[in-house]
Amino acid sequence: MRKCISSTAVFILFLMSGVKLYAAEKILLTTQIWPPYQVYHDHLLEGTAVTVVKNILEKMDVPYEIKVYPWERAQVMVQAGAAQGFFLASKNSKRDAYATFSEAIFPQKWNWYLLRNNPLNPNDESFKENACILVRFGSNMQHWLHANHYKAVGSFKNTDALIKALLAKRCDAMLANELAINNYLQKESLPPEIFKIYPNMNKPLGVYWSNKYLAENPEFLERFNRFVKQYKAAEDF
């Protein structure tokens, strides 16, 4: 009887130990600086996306760390297994090969931006052949432009550099996130009327989670998505 109790106690301690080890496992999320979604304020990482992702992971009781990298590197780290997820991102086939897109957290509008005196129109068939397009490096917009055979220049690491290049007439147009552009214009006290704006498409934003991590934690994504849906329903995080 004593031997049975002792064995049972050891088994329970083993289970408890396993739970603690799992609970203590910290995940690494990579991101980029992309106002207003991810910003530095007084040396702290903040922004609308950072707030939501942090709150969801805390509600899930999942230890985490968020690190900022150049956007292309942030994605490659997940592909290489050095991180478990990256955000904010929209869906594409390249990312789908090694990670899974979460429930969408924010809407996103892609727009074409041209200077007022530029006669080109993105809706014309000749635009793809003739226009030079500015785009952020490592972005889904860059992936889409290349996949659809536009003449894209994607060496820009942030929205500020992208807009300044267009204002300097380095190309005919830029493809960019509407909220990010509006945020820059407001910060610089510039009117939207400096551009001709044409809608491109809607591409919702979420978190990409490593397929390897999800295979090892099969219930994680369902729980994360459930909290995302709660956030979108209540918007009180």
Automatic annotation (TrEMBL):
Q: Name one Pfam family in it.
A: SBP_bac_3
Q: Which domain of life is it from?
A: Bacteria
- SUPFAM superfamilies assigned to the protein according to its UniProt record, in alphabetical order: Periplasmic binding protein-like II
Locate the Solute-binding protein family 3/N-terminal domain: which residues? 30-234
Protein name, please? Bacterial extracellular solute-binding proteins, family 3
